[in-house]
Design a protein that fits this description.
mainly alpha; two-stranded antiparallel sheet; 83% helix
Length: 436
């Protein structure tokens, strides 16, 4: 099989797994929102955010850093075995440390971030089984076993959701659904370990073990700050809501923002296939025009998405969340615009990659996080829950402006700053109109 055919075949499996996971995560929203209380949905939202945040420290960027080591060890089964098992043991050690700290804390407290001891136990179990699945997925992916890698992820996710929905049907509680998710991940982890058993049984300490581990950390740890900044950006609004309000308001906000992410998910899925073409042709005029137009079309679509969601917000929220959320449906177009601005930098940052200046992205993201906290706290305090969205929008507008500005300084594509200004002002006015 040629490299091109192999690449297309592997991409197909990853695309199926990726779309499958996102589709299932999307379809579970109406089931959960209509089955549990608003406060319980806030618990579910916090569960997802905290596990995503802690998993950064559990995985430690190994999923990205291990690639070159696996490719260099492709004919050395003992070294492959050492790298795979070591990645599992490193992550298991981190989970053990986190679990121990939590165990000590819960001797003195009853809740942490408004979550009780039971939910935190679920978080630790989720991280454990997720880690096994994810490291196995990464290992198989870099070993060019795309079909097996995709099967591991899909099996874990599908079985978890099916068991979770069944438990939810029996008891109508968020805890029962989380139990189902964990059972699914456990089953997936057993399948993962079975698939990779030959590498587990071959594990042994090598003469160059220290050098391999040192190189693994050197290659992996630089990815952690970038993942951390993205996670903190996603958590900023939730943290502010917990500071100013409570779980009820967080539950309302969580449902609205999850539904508001639909256009962004669709755009990311559709645009993913264009990135290889953009990278291969960024030096040509046609390539530059494609890259520029792609970003400009994205900007123009923001107010159009606002108008569409404004017209059907009540209907959409009632379908996906139920009548108890309809009274806050006016926030849907506001949240949608905010999300599109915050996530818009994915389409206009090729300059950072071309000039090998991706660390600039980290600085801009942390700057945006600081602004997000400041504006969200300020507007949230004076306006209410809508102020959180407004603060996030302002931070997103400033982020997309400075992100584009420095990307253009590194490599010019001819992005229109006038268009950014016009769309930003128009979008801000449209969002403000929802407050009256």
């Amino acid at each position: 099989m040629s490299l091109l055919k192999k690449g297309l075949s592997d991409s197909r499996y990853y695309l199926i797994a990726n779309i499958g996971n996102k589709l299932l995560a999307f379809l579970i929203i109406p089931i959960l929102a209509k089955s549990i209380s608003i406060e319980d949905f806030a618990t579910y939202d916090l569960f997802l955010l905290i596990t995503a945040f802690l998993n950064i420290f559990v995985i430690l960027g190994i999923d990205s850093g291990i690639g070159i080591l696996l490719s260099e060890s492709q004919n050395d089964d003992k070294q492959l075995s050492f790298l795979y098992v070591s990645s599992l043991l490193i992550s298991f050690s981190v989970i053990s440390i986190i679990s121990t700290i939590l165990g000590v804390l819960f001797v003195y407290i009853d809740e942490l971030f408004l979550l009780n001891k039971e939910i935190w136990i679920y978080i630790c179990l989720y991280m454990l089984f997720y880690m096994i699945n994810y490291h196995t997925f990464t290992f198989l992916r870099w070993r060019e076993k795309a079909k097996q890698a995709s099967f591991v992820i899909l099996f874990s996710y599908i079985s978890g959701i099916l068991v979770g929905v069944y438990f939810l049907y029996l008891t109508k509680s968020v805890e029962s659904y989380l139990q189902g998710l964990i059972i699914g991940l456990f089953l997936g982890s057993m399948v993962s370990l079975f698939i990779a058993k030959e590498y587990i049984f071959k594990f042994e300490i090598l003469d160059n073990s220290k050098e391999l581990l040192k190189e693994l950390f050197i290659l992996s740890l630089p990815y952690v700050p970038n993942s951390l900044s993205s996670s903190l950006m996603q958590m900023a609004d939730r943290v502010v809501i917990l500071i100013l309000f409570g779980k009820y308001e967080l539950g309302l906000y969580a449902v609205i923002t999850k539904v508001a992410k639909i256009p962004k998910i669709i755009i990311d899925t559709l645009s993913g296939g264009f990135f290889p073409i953009m990278f291969k042709n960024y030096k040509t005029e046609k390539g530059k025009k494609l890259i520029r137009n792609f970003f400009h079309i994205y900007l123009i679509s923001i107010p159009l998405f606002f108008l569409l969601s404004y017209l059907i917000s009540d209907w959409i929220i009632e379908i996906f969340a139920g009548k108890k959320y309809v009274n806050v449906s006016y926030m849907l177009p506001m949240a949608l615009v905010s999300i599109l601005f915050v996530g818009g930098t994915k389409l206009n940052g090729l300059g950072y990659s071309i000039k090998r200046k991706t660390h600039y992205i980290l600085y801009i993201t942390f700057f945006a996080i600081a602004l997000n906290y400041i504006f969200s706290l300020m507007f949230g305090y004076f306006i209410g829950l809508e102020g959180i969205i407004l603060g996030t929008l302002i931070a997103g507008i400033l982020k997309i402006y400075f992100y584009t500005l420095y990307s253009e300084k590194l490599y010019r594509f001819g992005y229109s700053f006038n268009l950014i200004l016009y769309i930003s002002i128009l979008s801000f006015i449209l969002v403000l109109s929802c407050l009256y």
